[in-house]
C-alpha cells in the first residue's frame, strides 16, 4: 500500500512506521488487491488526511497506523482475504463520515459494504461492555454482526489496540480495554479456535490489569530460561532419536506456557510459580498423510510412554474425539528427568494448522441451530480443507441465522438482557421484574416514548414507565412473545379473578344474610349453570364487577326455590286434594312415611333436592300445586321461607319406622390439597356397605381444596358413620352435610 500524503501532525517516528507498514502490507497483498484498488484506497486515505487536522484518535493513537497494523495482523494470523482487508482499510473512512455506505457499496461491492455495516453496528456498543453480562454481550455482538467474519475482524482489531496501549497515560481507559479484551474478545477467540490470539490477549490483559503479577512471572521465567532450555533439550534428544528410528517424519519443539495460563494455575492450585509442574510443554508435529494421522500419533505416544512413566489421569485424547471447535491433538504427561512432569502434545501438520489458526484453517458449518453463543460457535468447524477460494471467502455465505431469533436490550444503567426476537416493551418489562411488567404503561426507547406493544430492536436502550394503578389485561397475551411474560400475565390474571370471585361470593353471602335467605349449594349451582356459567369463579367475578345484579339474582333464587309453590288461588291444606301416584311412577316405593297420621301408600311424594332428606332426618311435607308432597328437612335452607309464606300448605310428616330406599346426601369437605387425599376419601366410601359415591366436584387453590361429594345412603346413622370416618383422613379440615 502507498503511504498517504500530508501526514503533517504525525511524528517522524510515526511517519517512518506508516511507510514501513504500507510497504509491508502492499507486498503481502500483491496479487490479491489490484493496482487500481490500491490507488483508490490511497486516494480515499489522502482525502481523509486533508479533511481532518489530527490523524490521531481521542486517545492519542495514530488511526492510520492502527488500521494498517490490523490489516497486516489479519493477513498474517488469519487469512489475506481481499474483501476483509479492504473493509479494514476503509472502515475509518466510514467512521469519520468521509464516505457513506451507499458509495462504498457502489464502488466496492455488497460484501465489503456488508462487512462495514456489521463493524459499524458492533463497535458502537463496545464502550458499554464493562457494565453488562459478558455472555449476553457476546450474543449482542453476534446478532449485530450477522457475519462471523466481522467478529474475527473485531478480535484482530482489539489485539492490535492492546499491543499499542502499553504505558498509555490514561490508566483507567487501559484497564477498561484490558477487561473487554479478557472477558469478551479472548473468550470469542477461544471458542473460534484462535488460540494464539487468545493467549496473547489474555497475557496483555493481565499485564495491564495486574502489572505487578505479570512482571513477577515474566521475570521468574526469564531467570529460569537457560535452565528450562537445557532441560527441554535433555528431554527432547532421546525422544527424537527413538521417533526417527521408528521412521516418523516430524518436528519437535518445546514451549513455555503463557503468563496468563501460569497465573491461572497459581491461583487455582494456590502455589507460587515454583509449584507449577508443567510450566512448559513439548510439541511433536508429524508429517503424515490424512489416512495415517491417528496411527502415527499413537505410535509416537507409545514410544514416549515406553521411555517415561505416564500420568494416566492427565492423558487427553482429542484425536479419536476432536473438540467441538475443531481442535485435534493427543496429550500425554510423563515423569521426565529430575522427577519433573512434562506435557507432550502429538499432532499432525494439518492438526497444528487448525490449532494455530483455528477457524481460518479448517471450517465446516454443521448447521446446528441454537440459542447459545457457545453452542453455535462450537459447531462452526472444519469447513473447506484445502479450499481453493480460502476460508474467509467461504465464510461470507454463512450468515448467523441463529441470532436472528434473539434481541439484546440495554437498560438506562447499561445492564443487558436477552429476549426472543419480536419481543415488545411489555416483554422487556416482565424480563426486568414481574411487578414492573404488571404496572407497565409504556417505555422510553432510545429517547422516544413508545407503547407497550412496540417491538424492540437489537441494542435499544429502554426505560420502562409504570403506574401503580395499572394491572395486567387479557389482551396483553396477544402482545408478548416471551414465555416468562405470558406465564406472569396468566398468573396475575388468575390472581385477579380469584380476588374478584372471593369479593363476589362475599357480596352474595352478605346480601343473602341481610334478607335472611339461606343459600342451598345444590340450588345455587343449578342456577349458576342455568345462567350460562361453566365456572363458579366466573359467576362470582361478574357479580363483583356488577355485571350481575345481586338483588335480581337473589330474587331469582327465591323464585326458583318456590317455583312449584306458585298457586292459582289460595286454598287450605284440608281442601287440597292429594294426588295419587301415577302409574308411571315407581310402584316399588316402600311405605316409609306417614303424613297427617296416615300412611302415604298410593300417594305421590318427592324428596326435595334443596336439602336431600334421608331416613332419620327431622322432616316436614309441603304440598305443591301439582298435588305432590315434597319432603323437606326441618333445617332446610328454604324451610323458614316456606313456613312463613305458605303455612297452610305445610303438613306434618314422620318416618314410618321402616328403612327406606337409598337416598342421596351431599357433603361439603374442606382440606389440604395433598397428593392422594381424594383417593383416601373415596376409598372409605367405597368400603362402606350399601353406600356408594354418585358425584364429586372439587375446586383447589393455594394448597387447599373444597369439594362437594354426593353419596347414596339408606339412613341418617349410616351417613353420620361415613362423616366420622372421613374426618379421620389426614389433611381433612372439615366435613359437613349440605
Structure in words:
The chain is of the alpha+beta class. The chain is elongated and about 125 Å long.
List keywords for this structure.
738 residues, alpha+beta, 45% helix
Q: What layout of secondary structure does this protein have?
A:
Layout: H1 12-28, H2 35-51, H3 63-77, H4 82-95, H5 101-108, H6 110-123, H7 134-145, H8 148-164, H9 171-191, H10 195-209, H11 211-223, H12 225-245, E1 250-256, H13 259-269, E2 280-286, H14 293-307, E3 309-310, E4 316-317, E5 330-335, E6 341-348, H15 349-357, H16 373-378, H17 391-395, E7 406-410, E8 416-420, H18 425-432, H19 434-438, E9 440-445, E10 448-450, E11 462-466, H20 483-514, H21 521-530, H22 536-544, H23 550-561, E12 593-595, E13 598-599, E14 605-607, E15 619-623, E16 629-633, H24 639-645, E17 650-655, E18 663-672, H25 677-687, E19 692-701, E20 704-713, H26 716-726, E21 732-737
Parallel strand pairs: 2-6, 14-16
Antiparallel strand pairs: 1-2, 3-5, 4-5, 5-6, 7-8, 9-10, 9-11, 12-13, 12-17, 15-16, 15-17, 18-20, 18-21, 19-20
Helix pairs in contact: 1-3, 2-4, 3-4, 3-8, 4-6, 5-6, 6-7, 6-8, 8-9, 8-10, 9-10, 10-11, 11-13, 20-22
Q: Shape from CA axes?
A: elongated
Strand % is 15-25%
Estimated helix fraction? 40-55%
**How many strands, which pairing sense, and closed or not: the largest β-sheet?**
6 strands, mixed
Total number of strands: 21
Provide the residue-averaged pLDDT.
Answer: 78
Tell me the Rg in angstroms: 43 Å
Which structural class do the helices and strands define? alpha+beta
Distance between the termini: 97 Å
| Tally of separate helices | 26
Low-confidence runs of at least 5 consecutive residues? 1-8, 359-389, 564-590
Amino acid at each position: 500500500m502507498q503511504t498517504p500524503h500530508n501526514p503533517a501532525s504525525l511524528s517522524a517516528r510515526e511517519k517512518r512506521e506508516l511507510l514501513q507498514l504500507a510497504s509491508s502490507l502492499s507486498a503481502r497483498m500483491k496479487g490479491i488487491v489490484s493496482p487500481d484498488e490500491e490507488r483508490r484506497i490511497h486516494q480515499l486515505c489522502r482525502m481523509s488526511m486533508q479533511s481532518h487536522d489530527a490523524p490521531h484518535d481521542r486517545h492519542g493513537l495514530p488511526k492510520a497506523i492502527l488500521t494498517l497494523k490490523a490489516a497486516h495482523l489479519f493477513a498474517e494470523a488469519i487469512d489475506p482475504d481481499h474483501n476483509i482487508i479492504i473493509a479494514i482499510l476503509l472502515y475509518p473512512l466510514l467512521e469519520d463520515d468521509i464516505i457513506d455506505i451507499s458509495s462504498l457499496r457502489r464502488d466496492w461491492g455488497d460484501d465489503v459494504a456488508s462487512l462495514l455495516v456489521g463493524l459499524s453496528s458492533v463497535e458502537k456498543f463496545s464502550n458499554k461492555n464493562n457494565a453488562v453480562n459478558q455472555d449476553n454481550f457476546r450474543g449482542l455482538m453476534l446478532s449485530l454482526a450477522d457475519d462471523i467474519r466481522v467478529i474475527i475482524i473485531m478480535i484482530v482489531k482489539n489485539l492490535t489496540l492492546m499491543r499499542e496501549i502499553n504505558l498509555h497515560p490514561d490508566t483507567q481507559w487501559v484497564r477498561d480495554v484490558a477487561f473487554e479484551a479478557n472477558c469478551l474478545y479472548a473468550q470469542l477467540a477461544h471458542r473460534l479456535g484462535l488460540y494464539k490470539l487468545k493467549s496473547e490477549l489474555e497475557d496483555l490483559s493481565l499485564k495491564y490489569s495486574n502489572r505487578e503479577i505479570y512482571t513477577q512471572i515474566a521475570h521468574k521465567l526469564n531467570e529460569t530460561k537457560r535452565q528450562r532450555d537445557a532441560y527441554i533439550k535433555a528431554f527432547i534428544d532421546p525422544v527424537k532419536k527413538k521417533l526417527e528410528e521408528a521412521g516418523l517424519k516430524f518436528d519437535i519443539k518445546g514451549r513455555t506456557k503463557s503468563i496468563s495460563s501460569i497465573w491461572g494455575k497459581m491461583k487455582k492450585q494456590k502455589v507460587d510459580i515454583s509449584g507449577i509442574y508443567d510450566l512448559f510443554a513439548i510439541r511433536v508435529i508429524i508429517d503424515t498423510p490424512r489416512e495415517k494421522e491417528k496411527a502415527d500419533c499413537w505410535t509416537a505416544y507409545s514410544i514416549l510412554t515406553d521411555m517415561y512413566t505416564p500420568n494416566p489421569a492427565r492423558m487427553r485424547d482429542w484425536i479419536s474425539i476432536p473438540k467441538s471447535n475443531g481442535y485435534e491433538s493427543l496429550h500425554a504427561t510423563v515423569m521426565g528427568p529430575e522427577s519433573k512432569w512434562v506435557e507432550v502434545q502429538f499432532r499432525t501438520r494439518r492438526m497444528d494448522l487448525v490449532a494455530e489458526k483455528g477457524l481460518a484453517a479448517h471450517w465446516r458449518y454443521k448447521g446446528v441451530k441454537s440459542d447459545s453463543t457457545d453452542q453455535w460457535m462450537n459447531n462452526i468447524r472444519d469447513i473447506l480443507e484445502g479450499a481453493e477460494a480460502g476460508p474467509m471467502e467461504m465464510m461470507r455465505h454463512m450468515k448467523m441465522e441463529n441470532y436472528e431469533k434473539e434481541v439484546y436490550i440495554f437498560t438506562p444503567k447499561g445492564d443487558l438482557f436477552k429476549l426472543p426476537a419480536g419481543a415488545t416493551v411489555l416483554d422487556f418489562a416482565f424480563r426486568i421484574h414481574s411487578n414492573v411488567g404488571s404496572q407497565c404503561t409504556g417505555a422510553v426507547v432510545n429517547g422516544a416514548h413508545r407503547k407497550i406493544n412496540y417491538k424492540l430492536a437489537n441494542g435499544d436502550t429502554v426505560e420502562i414507565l409504570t403506574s401503580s394503578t395499572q394491572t395486567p389485561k387479557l389482551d396483553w397475551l396477544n402482545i408478548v412473545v416471551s414465555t416468562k411474560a405470558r406465564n406472569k400475565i396468566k398468573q396475575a390474571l388468575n390472581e385477579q379473578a380469584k380476588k374478584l370471585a372471593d369479593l363476589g361470593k362475599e357480596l352474595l353471602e352478605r346480601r343473602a344474610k341481610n334478607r335472611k335467605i339461606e343459600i342451598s349449594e345444590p340450588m345455587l349451582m343449578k342456577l349458576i349453570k342455568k345462567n350460562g356459567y361453566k365456572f363458579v369463579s366466573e359467576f362470582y367475578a361478574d357479580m363483583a364487577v356488577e355485571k350481575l345484579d345481586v338483588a335480581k339474582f337473589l330474587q331469582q333464587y327465591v323464585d326458583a326455590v318456590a317455583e312449584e309453590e306458585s298457586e292459582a288461588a289460595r286454598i287450605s291444606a284440608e281442601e287440597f286434594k292429594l294426588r295419587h301416584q301415577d302409574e308411571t311412577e315407581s310402584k316399588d316405593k316402600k311405605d316409609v312415611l306417614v303424613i297427617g297420621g296416615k300412611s302415604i301408600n298410593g300417594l305421590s311424594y318427592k324428596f326435595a333436592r334443596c336439602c336431600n332428606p334421608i331416613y332419620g332426618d327431622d322432616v316436614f311435607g309441603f304440598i305443591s300445586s301439582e298435588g305432590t308432597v315434597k319432603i323437606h328437612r326441618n333445617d332446610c335452607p328454604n324451610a323458614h321461607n316456606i313456613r312463613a309464606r305458605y303455612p297452610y300448605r305445610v303438613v306434618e310428616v314422620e318416618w314410618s319406622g321402616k328403612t327406606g330406599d337409598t337416598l342421596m346426601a351431599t357433603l361439603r369437605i374442606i382440606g389440604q390439597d395433598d397428593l392422594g387425599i381424594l383417593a383416601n376419601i373415596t376409598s372409605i366410601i367405597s368400603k362402606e356397605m350399601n353406600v356408594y359415591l354418585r358425584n364429586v366436584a372439587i375446586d383447589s387453590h393455594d394448597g387447599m381444596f373444597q369439594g362437594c361429594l354426593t353419596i347414596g345412603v339408606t339412613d341418617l346413622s349410616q351417613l353420620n358413620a361415613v362423616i366420622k370416618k372421613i374426618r379421620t383422613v389426614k389433611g381433612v379440615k372439615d366435613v359437613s352435610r349440605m
